[in-house]
């Protein structure tokens, strides 16, 4: 990460005096005080300065320094706050464990978001089933028994050295490789966790560049991070469809030996995977894969919908999620707690720009075009969608007709986009013209990163904060095909209005449509009938797995 360029951009507000000398914000404050002229004020100020310096010195001596990684991230942590100062707190005894989804007993200060999120959200209408809750508590016990550092883990590691294993080990593992954009990572990790739940495996997370900077530990008492000395980590980047232990490769080349049990397998479930890799979704193949103690998975997909089509899993899934379209909503809220640094980004922004509005509208603008834009056809699409769907009011271009409303409703619009243009445009429109309803519209965009910079920590921190902020809105507009938007809608429990993907740089008609459910779309599902061994449309087999609104060949739970 280019820390210098970040610091340059985020340095305190600067102004210039006398032509060339620049002073920062704190200098400006001092100058104001002095220019008021009275000696009394000067003395008061000097006293304050001395007291302040002493306090700073004390705090430097007695206070813990932020960790090095925090300093590298370059932004401040969230503060520990009393319940009394949270925005929109109506009930301070609110359900901080989210209906039993979260375990109690975590240290609150080390991960503020875990138990504070409830203060920023409306209560979810979707309750986790008691079966899911007990499954999670049992999973946590398994994770603690088998996790890194335990005797079972050490025993299992020894198996990795062998081609085949002898006998059944106590614990089995699935290792998730950090891969792809942040939205994809969140969705694929949730999918792999669900697979771990269904197959009694322990999930271990390759931290990649920044997983540990972005997310808190979700399991009480034992880390989910793959230890840094895991013997295969340096092979992760090179694993692909041609790897000798790739399951699809082995099926294709008929080198599966059903006599002995392999110590590990690589599962290639990336969007470019082939028909043989897709055999993962067949029950018979699951029986074979199920015995292997170490599974290493690379995927950028939300493959949950296809798990529901595996006969051996669907009973359990029905018990876990009687409300079928709540899988990511619950698992996402269970797993993904932003670290204090990211939580600081979320809460400071929320409190500064969103908490006081009567209604919060999220608009997530993701344009998949070589050219970064902004584009007029996308701008037209946003205003057409938000006005037709009555999410935002029209403006009255006859300024003098300005409506006066005694207590106007205040809507805060949160725009997220790599480009600044769309929010700027909306902001100008609602400043230059009155709304036809008299409503007051504030438009806010936290960042304008320009382009995707997946390798940079701060960039990903902001991306996560923005997904999270979008999930705190009352109504959400997302962009077709975007996993960034899927994460926001799922965490928020929101059925978004989807801005359909424009073709030939033309505003689509209709510009948007309401999603059937809040679930993410599986972008590259298999179309195969494992029993009949023939192709089949997997989007028409059961009523709860359908084709997506934004990708005709995708699958989603409804
Ligand atoms: N901060 C920020 N980053 C974004 C935004 N849109 C895209 N990005 C970046 O681009 C990446 C896109 O990958 P992904 O999260 O998978 O979203 P998708 O490409 O829309 O599916 C994100 O993870 C961010 O790094 C945005 O609105 N805000
Ligand atoms: Mg993506």
Output the keywords:
about 550 residues, alpha/beta, Rossmann fold, 3 domains, 6-stranded mixed beta sheet, 4-stranded parallel beta sheet, 19 helices, 18 strands, globular, disordered N terminus, binds guanosine-5'-diphosphate, binds magnesium ion, transmembrane helix, galactoside 2-alpha-L-fucosyltransferase activity, transmembrane
Describe this structure as you would to a colleague.
The chain has helices at residues 3-10, 25-35, 39-62, 68-73, 112-116, 130-146, 151-160, 182-199, 211-214, 247-252, 283-289, 304-307, 311-320, 327-335, 340-354, 376-388, 421-432, 457-471, 483-492, and strands spanning 14-17, 21-24, 164-165, 173-176, 202-205, 261-262, 264-269, 294-299, 359-365, 410-417, 440-444, 475-479, 497-499, 512-514, 528-529, 534-535, 545-547, 555-557. It is of the alpha/beta class. It has three domains: 3-63, no CATH class; 130-335, no CATH class; 353-557, 3-Layer(aba) Sandwich (Rossmann fold), CATH 3.40.50. A six-stranded mixed beta sheet has the order 11-10-9-12-13-14, with helices on both faces. Strands 5-4-8-7 form a four-stranded parallel beta sheet. Helix 17 links the parallel strand 10 (410-417) and strand 11. It starts with a helix and ends with a strand. Bound molecules: guanosine-5'-diphosphate and magnesium ion (MG).
């Amino acid at each position: 990460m280019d820390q210098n360029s970040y610091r340059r951009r985020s340095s305190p507000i600067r102004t210039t005096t006398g032509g060339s000398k620049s002073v920062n914000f704190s200098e400006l404050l001092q100058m104001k005080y002095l220019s008021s002229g009275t000696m009394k004020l000067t003395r008061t100020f000097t006293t304050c300065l001395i007291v302040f310096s002493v306090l700073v010195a004390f705090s430097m001596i007695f206070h813990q320094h932020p960790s090095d990684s925090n300093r590298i991230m370059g932004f401040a942590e969230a503060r520990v706050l009393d319940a009394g100062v949270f925005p929109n707190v109506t009930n301070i005894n609110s359900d901080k464990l989210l209906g039993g989804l979260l375990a109690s007993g975590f240290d609150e200060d080390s991960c503020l978001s875990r138990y504070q999120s409830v203060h920023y959200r409306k209560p979810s209408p979707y309750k986790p089933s008691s079966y899911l809750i007990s499954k999670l508590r049992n999973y946590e016990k398994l994770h603690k028994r088998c996790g890194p550092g335990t005797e079972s883990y050490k025993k299992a590691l020894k198996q990795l050295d062998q081609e085949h294993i002898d006998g059944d080990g106590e614990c089995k593992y699935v290792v998730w490789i950090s891969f792809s954009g942040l939205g994809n990572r969140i969705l694929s990790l949730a999918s792999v966790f669900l697979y771990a739940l269904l197959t009694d495996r322990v999930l271990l997370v390759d931290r990649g560049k920044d997983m540990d900077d972005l997310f808190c530990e979700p399991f009480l008492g034992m880390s989910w991070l793959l230890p840094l000395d895991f013997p295969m980590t340096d092979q992760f980047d090179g694993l692909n469809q041609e790897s000798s232990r790739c399951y699809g490769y082995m099926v294709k080349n008929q080198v599966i030996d059903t006599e002995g049990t392999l110590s590990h397998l690589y599962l290639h479930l990336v969007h470019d995977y082939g028909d043989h890799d897709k055999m993962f979704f067949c029950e018979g193949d699951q029986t074979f894969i199920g015995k292997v103690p170490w599974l290493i998975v690379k995927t950028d997909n939300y493959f949950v919908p296809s798990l529901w089509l595996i006969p051996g899993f669907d009973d359990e899934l029905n018990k876990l999620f009687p409300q079928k379209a709540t899988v990511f909503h619950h698992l996402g809220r269970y797993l993904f707690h932003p670290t204090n640094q990211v939580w600081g980004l979320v809460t400071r922004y929320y409190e500064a720009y969103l908490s006081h509005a009567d209604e919060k509208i999220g608009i997530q603008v993701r344009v998949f075009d070589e050219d970064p834009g902004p584009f007029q056809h996308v701008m037209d699409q946003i205003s057409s969608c938000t006005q037709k769907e009555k999410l935002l009011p029209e403006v009255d271009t006859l300024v003098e007709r300005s409506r006066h409303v005694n207590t106007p409703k205040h809507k805060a619009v949160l725009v997220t986009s790599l480009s600044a243009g769309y929010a700027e445009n909306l902001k100008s429109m609602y400043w230059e013209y009155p709304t036809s309803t008299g409503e007051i519209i504030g438009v806010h965009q936290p960042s304008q990163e320009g382009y995707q910079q997946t390798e940079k920590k701060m960039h990903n921190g902001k991306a996560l904060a923005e997904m999270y902020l979008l999930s705190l809105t009352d109504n959400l507009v997302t962009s077709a095909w975007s996993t960034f938007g899927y994460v926001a809608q799922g965490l928020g429990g929101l059925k978004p209005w989807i801005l359909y993907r424009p073709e030939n740089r033309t505003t689509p008609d209709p510009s948007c449509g309401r999603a059937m459910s809040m679930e993410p779309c599986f972008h590259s599902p298999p179309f195969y009938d494992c029993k009949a061994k023939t192709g089949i449309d997997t989007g028409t087999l059961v009523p709860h797995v359908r084709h997506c609104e934004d990708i005709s060949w995708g699958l989603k739970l409804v």
